[in-house]
Amino acid sequence: MTQRTHLVVGAGPIGSAVVRRLAAQGDRVRVVTRSGSGPDLPGVEKVAADAADAARMRELAAGSAVVYNCVNPAYHRWATDWPPVAAALLGAAESADAVLVTTANLYGYGHVDRRMTEDMPLVGGYEKADVRNRMWLDALAAHEAGRVRVTEARGADYVGPGAESHLGARVLPKVLAGKKAQVLRSLDTRHTWTYTEDMAMTLVALGSDERAWGRPWHVPSALEMSQREALTRLAEMAGAPAPRLGEYSPVLVRTLGVFIPLMRELPDVAYQMNRDFLMDSSAAQRELGLVPTPADEVLAAHLAPYTGAGSTARHAA
User: What secondary structure letter does DSSP report for 240?
Assistant: First the structure.
């Protein structure tokens, strides 16, 4: 198999997982972050650079077969930080004749009333959704003009080691300690959760499969539970008592938003928890042959950092 070169921009849980997968298959990887961080692995070059610097991104992308956008701007700065980064990486992929594969989410569909599929209209309707939609539509227009090949992987809320999650550091330690934990409303609406390693699996697959280009794909995701169900199962797996759970009131969320930028952003996306928020990922499974990690393996991997146990997840590297 021919060795290829890849540019991965971002080294959070998703970017790092992509780097590990590419390195494991023997490819060369250049990973870019502001600080020059990233996995220490053979064949991996770490570079400190600003992803919004279009000229520098073109320089770093030279010779790459695929450019992976795994950037994660501060949540409250999406409207400011995303447009120049998206434009720089689109231009970098075009200049290198590389495929652009973007890590994306489900915000663009707006306030949905059914299970989400890739052919649903991108109605947006609030700032964060409109930012993500503009990114995709700009990339798709460049693809349709024959300038560059693009695709994106859309995932639900993340679970897995290092993931910022509704089931994560603000909640799970309290559950495991037998203390009462508060979550965003509502505890019993059903939700799709995407494992970080399944997102990485999908991104890598999209970069190498020409059938994937020119359209978005939902990440195969086997975990579909309410917050109550997921936290109860995590407590069972850890041998902890049944969780005592409550819900943050909308008034409290708005009050905390005065002081905490992240909380200030939550009212716009509260609909994702206030009603069932479910994703259909059958297209990627059927057409690309991608298989999601079983739900209990996902939960075990998510739980492991909180209990000191080793991950049992199939896809973890």
Answer: P
Rounded alpha-carbon distances, angstroms, from residue 193 to 9, 45, 117, 196, 227? 23, 31, 15, 9, 10
How far apart are alpha carbons 317 and 313 in whole angstroms?
A: 9
Taking the C-alpha atoms of 149, 163, 165 and 126 in order, what is their torsion angle to the nearest 10 degrees?
Answer: -30
Strands 223-226 and 190-195: antiparallel
Q: How far is CA 151 from CA 203, 246, 293, 300, in A?
A: 9, 39, 22, 30
Strands (E), 141-205: 149-155, 157-159, 180-184, 190-195
Q: How far apart are the first and last CA of the chain?
A: 21
Which residues are paired to 31 by β-bridges?
Answer: 8, 46
In a structure prediction context, what are the per-residue pLDDT tens digits for the chain, which is 317 residues long? 578 999 999 999 999 999 999 999 999 999 999 999 999 999 999 999 999 999 999 999 999 999 999 999 999 999 999 999 999 999 999 999 999 999 999 999 999 999 999 999 999 999 999 999 999 999 999 999 999 999 999 999 999 999 988 999 999 999 999 999 999 999 999 999 999 999 999 999 999 999 999 999 999 999 999 999 999 999 999 999 999 999 988 776 677 666 677 677 788 899 999 999 999 999 999 999 999 999 999 999 999 999 986 543 444 43
The whole model's pTM is what? 0.95
282 upstream amide cis, omega within 30 of 0: no
| Cα–chain center distance at 160 | 11
Using CA atoms of 140, 144, 147, 149 in order, give the dihedral in degrees to the nearest 10: 60
